[in-house]
Amino acid sequence: MITKRIIPCLDVxxxxxxxxxxxxxxxxVASPVDMxxxxxxxxxxxxxxxxxxxxxxxxxxxxxxxxxxxxxVFIPLTVGGGISSIADFDRVLxxxxxxxxxxxxxxxxxxxxxxxxxLYGDQCVVLSCDIKRVGGEFRVFARGGRDDTxxxxxxxxxxxxxxxxxxxxxxxxxxxxxxxxxxxxMLDAVCKAVSVPVIASxxxxxxxDFIELFRKVPTIDAGLAASIFHFGEVSISDLKARMAEEGIxxxx
Amino acid sequence: xxxxxxxxxxxxxxxxxxxxxxxxxxxxxSDEKVIAEADRIILPGVGAFEDAxxxxxxxxxxxxxxxxxxxxKPMMGICLGMQLMFDVGYEYGKHEGLGLISGSVxxxxxxxxxxxxxxxxxxxxxxxxxxxxxxxxxxxxxxVYFVHSYYAAECDESVIAVTEYGxxxxxxxxxxxxxxxxxxxxxxxxxxxKILKAFVEL
Lengths: 252, 202
What we know:
The complex is a heterodimer of chains A (252) and B (202).
Chain A: E1 5-13, E2 16-21, E3 24-28, H1 32-42, E4 47-51, H2 56-72, E5 77-80, H3 86-94, E6 99-102, H4 104-108, H5 111-120, E7 125-134, E8 137-142, E9 147-152, H6 153-163, E10 167-172, H7 184-193, E11 198-201, H8 207-216, E12 222-225, H9 227-230, H10 236-245
Parallel strand pairs in A: 1-4, 1-12, 4-5, 5-6, 6-7, 7-10, 10-11, 11-12
Antiparallel strand pairs in A: 1-2, 2-3, 7-8, 8-9
Helix pairs in contact in A: 1-2
Chain B: E1 2-5, H1 12-21, E2 26-29, H2 32-37, E3 40-43, H3 49-58, H4 61-70, E4 75-78, H5 80-84, E5 86-89, E6 95-96, E7 101-107, E8 120-125, E9 127-128, E10 143-148, E11 150-153, E12 159-164, E13 168-175, E14 178-181, H6 189-200
Parallel strand pairs in B: 1-2, 1-3, 3-4, 4-14, 5-7
Antiparallel strand pairs in B: 5-6, 7-11, 8-10, 9-12, 12-13, 13-14
């Protein structure tokens, strides 16, 4: 049976890992390469690297870090942030990424999903979606949660999956950084709408938040978090031991 | 020296790094001479069947790989690389493979229960079908990492391991000196390293 994945996310800016509260007030944590090694040892099933730099210099640094990580870590790496062309896919895949996530790039040009899926296979293309409740509906936000696109999120996700996205990361802006638990309602709605793997992001504050996620949304595939792992508030090995106790399928 | 075949798509970086990690010398190449002189060949794969099969054919590497396989050189296909070793693939149409292992590559949607997700992404465990030198350092029930929407079908005589995803899916195959893994050993942590080590020692 396939296991539920635990995925630490490393937001990287200027070569360092950062994590903010509701996307604001980004603070420095540590070296991404060291953290990737540490997480792999402690049982992470996959790593996500988000490049949150916009400058060419930052991008070059990110590419170097990705290369160094992929040289030392032998679990799946997903890369996102600033992916808006096939050249971007090519660049990160060549550095050792296995999957590439598109967010704002797909909003600007949805065709990139089809094009990349044709070239690299559906399984390589991850749709990442920042979602916030606006006027009673789930709304897609672009540019790191700054711009309301006006698009209804479930419809958008279904459309992207139809075009070839092989996996979906759902990041709830409403719960991100608040550490009060995952957005069960939003995640359940997405899981019911699509048949590709869905990764929950935003809101994990404790081991029990993950247990609640996998209990209440049994079709969710993975839980993603950043700061609670970075700051050692939750250890991946403890989390996985607890999941096993609860009878949740987990790789140990 | 291991020749990692470069046909213009795919994640060759990780594979090369993981071989380096276990102390194996490997070169990423599309040079027929290098491939012919290598003592092992790995056909990697991330990508789409049609595009990859076409690139292999057009570059002339398909012929080299077939010739070296026939000559008995140890060879391993990974993920799409494994799929390309079969006779035919049904991904966005019908496309000819290398024909090193008899069988076809078909959508997992044809065989898994309707409520199972596609692609099959994540860590799943291996169930062995008989013994294989490829698995000499690992045990049944070890977890490996899968990412795929297609699977090898009509190949019972070549299957050396399966994985359960609503039904048994082909996880690894062998036909003499030709091996294939549907999962990614280079992304399967320590277990994957042990499989690569076994391949290097074949």
